[in-house]
Design goal:
With 312 residues, the chain is an alpha+beta fold. The protein contains ten helices and ten strands. 46% of the residues lie in helices and 23% in strands. The chain starts with a helix and ends with a strand. GO terms for molecular function: diguanylate cyclase activity.
């Protein structure tokens, strides 16, 4: 035995002890055979599979969640063939049938000629991190939803209205379809607040929003609070006649609800005035012009005595 052999043997043993004392799972795959030449005993503690059961990359592939398999395997093969170090997150199958989130960090080992001869890496249990990430993403989604929601009535706010109107305008332009817009104003709402109080006024706004939302129930129809006591409806693929029918349904539904308004100059019940406009974006124009047209007709409805619909 050479003088260098003993120190080398000691170093190898030390390295092996260090590797196997970590929480991460070390492993090595020979690229020529695509078989595991080593995997740490930690794998059994985490996944329940004995190290002896990890024979080839096929075992690694089979013990991966089916939904992750194509994405992860394809990515890792491509990176390995190109000699690129990489990492991948996926769900690994445990011996008890459950799954745990794993992050594989992979390094390509090259021979003297610069050719890849092996892959070495570590598997990390990132389940808790994934749970935290998913919780954070859920909170972000909830915050995003809230940022597009009117805090009082729960319907869409002006921010979402503008975004949806722009999107639906572009869609209608491509398809050559009409797009309609309804502006709705609660009649004599200031008098309602003065007579019943602002808390009752807030409740009135919520009730009107809920009632109107039932009249435009298609998945792409959008009800939004435009501001104050004004609401707006975006009606994709809807011509003027059909939009006026929707407006009439809103008006009838409010009449059926019979919300008292003793201070109104129009009726003893809450009523609304509406302006209805339709455009065919393929013929030109911009979304703002549709809002302006509906707003002008709403003004006409109010000037004509309120509690009515103006659509032409």
């Amino acid at each position: 035995m050479s003088d260098d052999a003993a120190p080398l043997s000691v170093d190898t043993a030390v390295y092996k002890t260090l590797l196997e004392s970590t929480q991460a799972i070390p492993w090595r795959i020979d690229l020529e055979t695509m078989r595991f030449s080593y995997i740490g005993p930690q794998v059994e503690r985490l996944l329940g599979w004995s190290p002896r059961s990890w024979v080839s990359v096929d075992d690694w592939v089979e013990r991966m969640h089916p939904e992750d398999r194509e994405r992860v395997v394809g990515f890792c093969i491509e990176q390995s063939r190109n000699g690129i170090d990489h990492e991948a997150d996926y769900r690994a199958l445990k011996a008890d049938g459950s799954y745990v989130w794993i992050r594989d960090v992979v390094h390509v080992v090259r021979n003297g000629a610069g050719e890849g001869e092996a892959l070495v890496g570590f598997m990390f249990d990132i389940s808790e991190r994934k749970k935290s990430e998913e919780k954070l993403m859920q909170l972000q989604r909830e915050l995003e939803e809230l940022s597009y929601q009117d805090g009082l009535t729960g319907v869409a706010n002006r921010r979402l209205l503008d975004s949806v109107l722009e999107s639906e305008w572009a869609s209608a332009k491509r398809a050559g379809q009409p797009l309609s817009f309804i502006m709705l104003d609660i009649d004599c709402f200031k008098l309602y607040n003065d007579y019943y109080g602002h808390l009752a006024g807030d409740d009135c706004l919520r009730r009107v929003a809920q009632i109107v939302s039932t009249a435009a129930a298609r998945p792409r129809d959008l009800l939004a609070r435009f501001g104050g006591e004004e609401f707006a409806l975006v009606l994709p693929e809807t011509d003027l006649e059909a939009a006026c029918q929707v407006a009439e349904r809103c008006r009838a539904a409010l009449a059926d609800a019979a919300i008292p308004h003793r201070a109104s100059d129009v009726s003893h019940l809450v009523t609304v005035s509406m302006g209805v406009a339709t455009a065919t974006p393929a013929e030109g124009g911009i979304p703002a012009s549709l809002i302006e047209q509906a707003d002008r007709r709403l003004y006409q409805a109010k000037q004509s005595g309120r509690d009515r619909i103006v659509g032409a």
